[in-house]
Every structure is written in C-alpha cells, then in structure tokens.
Design a protein that fits this description.
122 residues; globular; Rossmann fold; 4 strands; alpha/beta; 4 helices
Length: 122
Amino acid sequence: MKALLLVAHGSRAATANDEIRRLAERVAAVVDGDYDAVVPAFLEMAEPNIHQGIERCAELGADAIVVVPYFLAGGRHVTRDIPAEIDCARAGHPQISIEIGGYVGASDAMPELVVASARGAA
C-alpha cells in the first residue's frame, strides 16, 4: 500500500491548517490509483506533525510513503528540517520505504499556476 504524505509548514491560524487538510482530500480525489491514501501533516504549529502523519500512514497499512513538501521554495525547511524528520521516521519504521518527493514550488506546473492566479484577479 502506497501513501502520499503532504507536509505543510503549519500555522497558528486553524483556518490555514484546515485549508491543507482540504487540499489533501482534493489530492486524494485525483491520484488515479497512484496512492492508496493521502495524509496531511505539518512541520510545526499544527497536528498531525510529521511523525504522527507517518504513524497514520503505517496504521493504514502503508509499506511505501512519498513525502511531498508543500513549500514554494527550497529553503531550510525543505533542505534540512523535513529530511531530518524523515530520517528519524525511517529509523522508527525500517519496514516502510519513505522517500521525499520534490517540493511543490519546484514543479514544472508552477508557472501556469502563477498565471492562472493572476488571471483570477481580473
């Protein structure tokens, strides 16, 4: 069973965190069988945190997890903090393959998303 763990920063604003949870539901609706589950998680300030998200994937029966950082730039959280959290998770779950995918901002689709957002302002 393969799971996608969508990792966002986390916010003190509950509405922002709820937005990520809804996004995970929307992603789950379009994965076309590539993933059996899509689980949201947060680096800080909200739950589930990354470890709790990994645990949820494990409870669902995941033997493979792809972590997608929902970040726009490859800063410290993407290059150091999330990989460090995932290294800890791997140590605790050696039976599960846990890989980190590209962060959202590096996607080839980003230019089109920016233009679509700009057009929405008109």
